[in-house]
Protein backbone atom coordinates (compact mmCIF):
# COMPACT_ATOMS: atom_id res chain seq x y z
CA UNK A 1 0.00 0.00 0.00
CA UNK A 2 1.33 3.47 -0.87
CA UNK A 3 1.98 5.94 1.94
CA UNK A 4 -0.99 8.25 2.29
CA UNK A 5 -0.45 11.30 4.46
CA UNK A 6 -3.35 12.71 6.41
CA UNK A 7 -3.24 16.41 5.59
CA UNK A 8 -6.22 18.61 6.33
CA UNK A 9 -4.34 21.81 7.13
CA UNK A 10 -1.13 23.64 6.40
CA UNK A 11 -2.22 25.47 3.24
CA UNK A 12 -2.95 28.84 4.85
CA UNK A 13 -1.30 31.75 3.07
CA UNK A 14 -0.88 29.96 -0.24
CA UNK A 15 -2.53 31.13 -3.47
CA UNK A 16 -4.80 28.68 -5.29
CA UNK A 17 -5.67 28.79 -9.01
CA UNK A 18 -8.03 26.13 -10.28
CA UNK A 19 -7.50 24.98 -13.87
CA UNK A 20 -10.11 22.28 -14.28
CA UNK A 21 -13.02 20.69 -12.42
CA UNK A 22 -15.06 17.81 -13.79
CA UNK A 23 -16.94 14.81 -12.34
CA UNK A 24 -15.54 14.95 -8.81
CA UNK A 25 -12.00 15.77 -9.94
CA UNK A 26 -10.05 19.00 -10.05
CA UNK A 27 -6.61 20.24 -11.05
CA UNK A 28 -5.01 23.48 -9.95
CA UNK A 29 -1.87 25.39 -9.06
CA UNK A 30 -0.82 26.00 -5.46
CA UNK A 31 1.65 28.87 -5.17
CA UNK A 32 3.54 29.75 -2.01
CA UNK A 33 6.85 31.58 -1.48
CA UNK A 34 9.52 29.63 -3.38
CA UNK A 35 7.17 26.84 -4.49
CA UNK A 36 4.73 26.08 -7.30
CA UNK A 37 2.90 22.79 -7.11
CA UNK A 38 0.25 21.16 -9.27
CA UNK A 39 -2.50 19.58 -7.16
CA UNK A 40 -4.87 16.97 -8.56
CA UNK A 41 -7.84 16.08 -6.41
CA UNK A 42 -10.30 13.21 -6.48
CA UNK A 43 -13.44 13.23 -4.34
CA UNK A 44 -14.10 10.03 -2.38
CA UNK A 45 -17.82 10.17 -1.72
CA UNK A 46 -19.61 6.98 -0.78
CA UNK A 47 -18.43 3.76 0.84
CA UNK A 48 -16.99 2.21 -2.33
CA UNK A 49 -14.94 5.29 -3.23
CA UNK A 50 -13.59 5.54 0.30
CA UNK A 51 -12.65 1.88 0.31
CA UNK A 52 -10.80 2.26 -3.00
CA UNK A 53 -8.88 5.18 -1.55
CA UNK A 54 -8.07 3.22 1.59
CA UNK A 55 -6.57 0.29 -0.34
CA UNK A 56 -4.83 2.47 -2.94
CA UNK A 57 -7.01 1.69 -5.97
CA UNK A 58 -7.99 5.16 -7.18
CA UNK A 59 -6.84 6.79 -10.43
CA UNK A 60 -4.52 9.08 -8.51
CA UNK A 61 -2.91 6.16 -6.68
CA UNK A 62 -2.31 4.55 -10.08
CA UNK A 63 -0.85 7.77 -11.48
CA UNK A 64 1.43 8.14 -8.46
CA UNK A 65 2.78 4.61 -8.86
CA UNK A 66 3.16 4.87 -12.63
CA UNK A 67 4.88 8.25 -12.47
CA UNK A 68 7.50 6.85 -10.11
CA UNK A 69 7.94 3.80 -12.32
CA UNK A 70 8.45 5.88 -15.46
CA UNK A 71 11.10 7.93 -13.67
CA UNK A 72 12.96 4.74 -12.69
CA UNK A 73 12.82 3.63 -16.34
CA UNK A 74 14.45 6.90 -17.40
CA UNK A 75 11.43 8.28 -19.23
CA UNK A 76 10.78 12.04 -19.06
CA UNK A 77 7.99 12.50 -16.55
CA UNK A 78 7.06 15.35 -14.23
CA UNK A 79 7.85 14.09 -10.69
CA UNK A 80 5.08 13.22 -8.25
CA UNK A 81 6.00 14.53 -4.82
CA UNK A 82 3.35 13.05 -2.57
CA UNK A 83 -0.03 11.40 -2.26
CA UNK A 84 -2.23 12.90 0.43
CA UNK A 85 -5.61 12.44 2.00
CA UNK A 86 -7.48 15.60 2.92
CA UNK A 87 -10.89 17.05 3.50
CA UNK A 88 -11.94 19.57 0.83
CA UNK A 89 -15.15 21.46 1.68
CA UNK A 90 -16.01 18.66 4.08
CA UNK A 91 -15.58 15.91 1.46
CA UNK A 92 -12.77 13.32 1.73
CA UNK A 93 -10.30 13.62 -1.16
CA UNK A 94 -7.17 11.97 -2.43
CA UNK A 95 -4.66 14.61 -3.53
CA UNK A 96 -1.70 14.08 -5.86
CA UNK A 97 1.06 16.69 -5.49
CA UNK A 98 3.37 17.21 -8.47
CA UNK A 99 6.09 19.65 -9.41
CA UNK A 100 5.00 22.34 -11.84
CA UNK A 101 6.99 21.88 -15.04
CA UNK A 102 7.84 25.05 -16.92
CA UNK A 103 6.59 25.33 -20.48
CA UNK A 104 3.39 25.00 -22.50
CA UNK A 105 1.59 21.74 -23.04
CA UNK A 106 2.10 20.22 -26.45
CA UNK A 107 -1.52 21.12 -27.23
CA UNK A 108 -0.88 24.77 -26.31
CA UNK A 109 2.24 24.73 -28.51
CA UNK A 110 0.29 23.36 -31.47
CA UNK A 111 -2.47 25.90 -30.93
CA UNK A 112 0.07 28.73 -31.03
CA UNK A 113 1.27 27.48 -34.41
CA UNK A 114 -2.30 27.67 -35.70
CA UNK A 115 -2.97 31.11 -34.22
CA UNK A 116 0.24 32.88 -35.32
CA UNK A 117 3.52 32.58 -37.16
CA UNK A 118 5.67 33.44 -34.16
CA UNK A 119 7.02 29.89 -33.79
CA UNK A 120 9.67 29.18 -36.39
CA UNK A 121 9.45 26.18 -38.69
CA UNK A 122 12.63 24.65 -37.26
CA UNK A 123 11.28 24.82 -33.72
CA UNK A 124 8.02 23.24 -34.90
CA UNK A 125 9.89 20.35 -36.51
CA UNK A 126 12.15 19.85 -33.47
CA UNK A 127 9.10 19.49 -31.24
CA UNK A 128 7.37 17.15 -33.71
CA UNK A 129 10.57 15.09 -33.83
CA UNK A 130 10.69 14.89 -30.03
CA UNK A 131 7.02 13.84 -29.92
CA UNK A 132 7.64 10.91 -32.25
CA UNK A 133 10.77 9.82 -30.40
CA UNK A 134 8.94 9.92 -27.08
CA UNK A 135 6.43 7.37 -28.38
CA UNK A 136 9.30 5.10 -29.46
CA UNK A 137 11.03 5.39 -26.08
CA UNK A 138 7.86 4.52 -24.18
CA UNK A 139 7.10 1.49 -26.37
CA UNK A 140 10.75 0.33 -26.13
CA UNK A 141 10.22 0.04 -22.36
CA UNK A 142 7.32 -2.34 -22.98
CA UNK A 143 4.66 0.27 -22.22
CA UNK A 144 2.12 2.41 -24.01
CA UNK A 145 -0.12 5.28 -23.01
CA UNK A 146 -3.82 4.83 -23.73
CA UNK A 147 -4.36 8.58 -23.32
CA UNK A 148 -1.32 10.03 -25.07
CA UNK A 149 -2.96 13.31 -25.99
CA UNK A 150 -0.96 16.54 -26.36
CA UNK A 151 -2.55 18.13 -23.27
CA UNK A 152 -0.87 15.37 -21.21
CA UNK A 153 2.58 16.29 -22.54
CA UNK A 154 4.60 19.41 -21.75
CA UNK A 155 7.19 21.10 -23.95
CA UNK A 156 10.03 21.80 -21.50
CA UNK A 157 12.47 23.04 -24.16
CA UNK A 158 12.01 23.82 -27.87
CA UNK A 159 15.74 23.32 -28.43
CA UNK A 160 17.88 25.08 -31.02
CA UNK A 161 19.99 24.21 -34.06
CA UNK A 162 22.38 22.20 -31.85
CA UNK A 163 19.96 20.88 -29.22
CA UNK A 164 16.82 18.77 -29.70
CA UNK A 165 13.51 19.73 -28.12
CA UNK A 166 12.52 18.15 -24.80
CA UNK A 167 9.11 16.91 -23.74
CA UNK A 168 7.75 15.62 -20.43
CA UNK A 169 4.80 13.42 -19.48
CA UNK A 170 2.44 15.13 -17.04
CA UNK A 171 -0.33 12.52 -16.77
CA UNK A 172 0.66 8.86 -16.46
CA UNK A 173 -2.59 7.37 -15.23
CA UNK A 174 -3.35 5.38 -18.41
CA UNK A 175 -0.02 3.65 -19.05
CA UNK A 176 -0.29 -0.08 -19.68
CA UNK A 177 2.00 -2.94 -20.68
CA UNK A 178 2.48 -3.73 -24.36
CA UNK A 179 1.36 -7.30 -24.96
CA UNK A 180 2.46 -9.26 -28.06
CA UNK A 181 -0.87 -8.46 -29.75
CA UNK A 182 -0.33 -4.71 -29.24
CA UNK A 183 3.16 -4.31 -30.72
CA UNK A 184 1.75 -2.44 -33.73
CA UNK A 185 -1.49 -1.14 -32.20
CA UNK A 186 0.17 0.50 -29.18
CA UNK A 187 2.28 3.09 -31.03
CA UNK A 188 -0.53 3.56 -33.55
CA UNK A 189 -2.91 4.50 -30.73
CA UNK A 190 -0.39 6.90 -29.20
CA UNK A 191 0.36 8.62 -32.50
CA UNK A 192 -3.34 8.85 -33.36
CA UNK A 193 -4.11 10.45 -29.99
CA UNK A 194 -1.77 13.30 -30.87
CA UNK A 195 -3.99 14.04 -33.87
CA UNK A 196 -7.43 13.40 -32.37
CA UNK A 197 -7.30 15.87 -29.47
CA UNK A 198 -6.04 18.90 -31.44
CA UNK A 199 -8.64 18.21 -34.13
CA UNK A 200 -11.37 18.15 -31.50
CA UNK A 201 -10.50 21.62 -30.20
CA UNK A 202 -10.08 23.23 -33.62
CA UNK A 203 -6.30 23.07 -33.91
CA UNK A 204 -5.29 22.27 -37.47
CA UNK A 205 -2.12 20.19 -37.61
CA UNK A 206 0.36 20.72 -40.40
CA UNK A 207 0.73 17.60 -42.50
CA UNK A 208 4.51 18.06 -42.54
CA UNK A 209 4.67 17.96 -38.73
CA UNK A 210 2.61 14.78 -38.53
CA UNK A 211 4.93 13.10 -41.01
CA UNK A 212 7.98 14.40 -39.13
CA UNK A 213 6.69 12.85 -35.90
CA UNK A 214 6.04 9.52 -37.62
CA UNK A 215 9.48 9.43 -39.21
CA UNK A 216 11.09 10.30 -35.85
CA UNK A 217 9.17 7.44 -34.22
CA UNK A 218 10.43 5.02 -36.87
CA UNK A 219 14.01 6.31 -36.66
CA UNK A 220 14.12 6.11 -32.86
CA UNK A 221 12.51 2.66 -32.88
CA UNK A 222 15.09 1.43 -35.39
CA UNK A 223 18.04 2.70 -33.36
CA UNK A 224 16.68 1.49 -30.02
CA UNK A 225 16.18 -1.98 -31.51
CA UNK A 226 19.67 -2.03 -33.02
CA UNK A 227 21.57 -1.00 -29.88
CA UNK A 228 21.87 -4.60 -28.80
CA UNK A 229 23.67 -5.37 -32.06
CA UNK A 230 27.36 -4.86 -32.66
CA UNK A 231 26.77 -1.93 -35.01
CA UNK A 232 24.50 0.43 -33.09
CA UNK A 233 25.09 3.30 -35.53
CA UNK A 234 23.53 1.52 -38.48
CA UNK A 235 21.38 3.90 -40.52
CA UNK A 236 17.68 3.16 -40.77
CA UNK A 237 16.89 0.93 -43.73
CA UNK A 238 15.01 3.07 -46.26
CA UNK A 239 12.88 0.23 -47.60
CA UNK A 240 11.80 -0.67 -44.07
CA UNK A 241 11.12 3.00 -43.32
CA UNK A 242 8.91 3.52 -46.39
CA UNK A 243 6.95 0.31 -45.87
CA UNK A 244 6.50 0.99 -42.15
CA UNK A 245 5.50 4.61 -42.73
CA UNK A 246 2.79 3.57 -45.20
CA UNK A 247 1.44 0.92 -42.84
CA UNK A 248 1.42 3.23 -39.83
CA UNK A 249 -0.03 6.17 -41.74
CA UNK A 250 -2.94 4.04 -42.95
CA UNK A 251 -3.54 2.55 -39.50
CA UNK A 252 -3.38 5.95 -37.80
CA UNK A 253 -5.90 7.37 -40.27
CA UNK A 254 -8.26 4.47 -39.70
CA UNK A 255 -8.04 4.88 -35.95
CA UNK A 256 -8.79 8.60 -36.18
CA UNK A 257 -11.88 7.84 -38.28
CA UNK A 258 -13.07 5.08 -35.92
CA UNK A 259 -12.77 7.44 -32.97
CA UNK A 260 -15.67 9.49 -34.26
CA UNK A 261 -16.41 12.96 -32.93
CA UNK A 262 -13.13 14.20 -31.36
CA UNK A 263 -14.72 17.05 -29.40
CA UNK A 264 -13.66 16.68 -25.73
CA UNK A 265 -16.10 17.00 -22.85
CA UNK A 266 -13.88 19.73 -21.36
CA UNK A 267 -11.77 21.88 -23.70
CA UNK A 268 -8.22 21.91 -22.23
CA UNK A 269 -7.43 25.11 -24.13
CA UNK A 270 -10.18 26.91 -22.23
CA UNK A 271 -8.61 26.27 -18.81
Biggest sheet overview: 6 strands, mixed
Please tally the helical runs, counting DSSP H or I stretches of 4 or more residues: 7
The CATH class name of the largest domain reads: Mainly Alpha
**What is the helical fraction, as a range of percent?**
40-55%
Could you explain the architecture of this structure?
With 271 residues, the chain is of the alpha+beta class. It folds into 2 domains: 5-99, 2-Layer Sandwich (Phosphorylase Kinase, domain 1); 106-270, Transferase(Phosphotransferase), domain 1, CATH 1.10.510. It is 41% helix and 22% strand. It has helices at residues 47-54, 59-72, 106-115, 121-140, 185-200, 207-226, 238-259, and strands at 5-6, 15-22, 25-32, 35-43, 80-88, 91-99, 143-145, 153-157, 166-169, 175-177. The strands form 3 sheets. A 6-stranded mixed sheet has the order 1-5-6-4-3-2. It has a two-stranded antiparallel ribbon with strand order 7-10. A hairpin with a 2-residue loop joins strand 2 and strand 3. Helix 5 packs across helix 7 (238-259). The radius of gyration is 20 Å and the shape is globular.
Task: Describe the structure concisely.
The protein is of the alpha+beta class.
Topology:
Layout: E1 5-6, E2 15-22, E3 25-32, E4 35-43, H1 47-54, H2 59-72, E5 80-88, E6 91-99, H3 106-115, H4 121-140, E7 143-145, E8 153-157, E9 166-169, E10 175-177, H5 185-200, H6 207-226, H7 238-259
Parallel strand pairs: 1-5
Antiparallel strand pairs: 2-3, 3-4, 4-6, 5-6, 7-10, 8-9
Helix pairs in contact: 4-5, 4-6, 5-7, 6-7
